[in-house]
């Protein structure tokens, strides 16, 4: 199934679509890398590293100034006191992933958070010790689950159960995920899937998977690295036990920026859950009494370990504000149309030149299309870069292109595919 929109393969159509785009003004809120001729590049790599909001420098500068002015007293006297700084991002993070504020916190980085969540939610027993993952999950996730299995004394070759596409297919079928859960759910301690696979761009049915996994008694977590700021997420209603994400991709938080964590409200008091503890997870009212006994905060905040990096949080605030102004519903509506336009244009290139390996149904994907070209993909990436178009490459032969609805335009998409058409003609 393809998209239901009416598109045209002309520059004029792309320009009109941009003029009618209610989110068009947000493009001006970002710095674009420049192409060799000095013009802004066509940036289609927001699924890898999002662009810098123009306001980020001011937000960071404010904290640098307050640090210079107040020193340690900035914890209380900065314009945004550092003691509570991370709370400035909580409501917005909750809106981004469809959660209640008590269910989210911005902290650490993705793989660190994944380990912290597995400490609490991967509790293997002799009868139920497996972790169900996507075959070809992002390597860091593979290392994390394998090392957790080993940490608990299991051989990852026995403990890790991988979902694989059918012979000759690129992506997983919903019915195969559910059938695996039906068959093996009783031995699975944790289901851990991405919300969008980094390589194929396939988006999963979080609600359906959670329901089926819970019915079998498994815990469920999602890696939203490619879902946060991309899909319209409803984590609270979908009901997974936890989720983790990073904020340097669609969320534009900057290189190595902080991650986020969702812990479902049903675990807000962490009853019966072991977890690793640190002073920032301790009750705020008594934290500075420096007592020896940990008294955890309610909700996701209770999983915090350390006082957070304020400069990085400041940069992220700048981006979160733009997301709040745009709203995820409007962003997702534009994204479906923008990626649909990319698909429409790619389908008009000479037969055999490029194959889209991402699912065709909009609800099974986010912004990204994964592309397989005839010939050398890395050479193609270089030629695109020479033409002022930034995508990225992932082994073995995939070029990923992700028009981000916050700053990409229909004209960007048109220019990208027009450049490809020039390559196709040789
Ligand atoms: C799906 C996925 N998981 C994990 C990671 C690793 O993230 P981090 O380096 O922030 O731990 C990435 C990074 O791109 C990713 O895409």
Brief summary of the model shown:
The protein has 426 residues and is an alpha/beta fold. It is built from 14 helices and 15 strands.
Structure description:
Helix content is 36%, strand content 14%. The chain has 14 helices and 15 strands. The protein has helices at residues 11-20, 56-70, 74-77, 90-97, 110-121, 139-151, 156-159, 174-184, 206-215, 235-238, 310-326, 328-346, 377-386, 410-425, and strands at residues 30-31, 42-43, 52-53, 104-107, 130-134, 160-163, 188-194, 219-223, 242-246, 259-263, 354-356, 369-373, 389-390, 392-394, 398-401. The strands form four sheets. Strands 4-10-9-8-7-5-6 form a seven-stranded mixed sheet, sandwiched between helices. Strands 11-12-15-14 form a four-stranded antiparallel sheet, with helices on one face. The protein has a two-stranded antiparallel sheet with strand order 1-3. The longest helix is centred in the C-terminal third of the chain and has 19 residues, at 328-346. Residues 109-111, 138, 140-141, 194, 198, 223, 225-226, 246 line the site of pyridoxal-5'-phosphate.
